[in-house]
């Protein structure tokens, strides 16, 4: 997910939250951002099912990725070497850093 930036002026295609003033890089991500301001936040939050773990997120996919830390599942494999991980973001960072990977730009 694109990160909110701290600049005071939104760039083209971005939107600024009127509540917290965060700038969301992609307009399509704005509804997801607004969930952090929901009055029903406690009802829509996803929690890690691992006993004793307090991790929670407003996105189920984040909890799923986190849960793999506990299970030690590493289903994401680099096509160029023997690196494996449970986190798709870690795989992308690895490929950029070590193999010069250039991901395709997200489109609106």
TrEMBL record:
Coiled coil: none annotated. PANTHER family: C2H2-TYPE DOMAIN-CONTAINING PROTEIN, KRAB AND ZINC FINGER DOMAIN-CONTAINING. It comes from Lentinula lateritia. It holds the Pfam family zf-H2C2_5. Keywords: Metal-binding, Repeat, Zinc, Zinc-finger. Residues 15-42, 46-75 form the C2H2-type domain. Residues 86-108 are annotated as: Disordered. SUPFAM superfamilies: beta-beta-alpha zinc fingers (SSF57667). This is C2H2-type domain-containing protein. Signal peptide: none annotated. InterPro entries: Znf_C2H2_sf, Znf_C2H2_type. It comes from the Eukaryota. The keyword Zinc-finger applies. SMART domains: ZnF_C2H2.
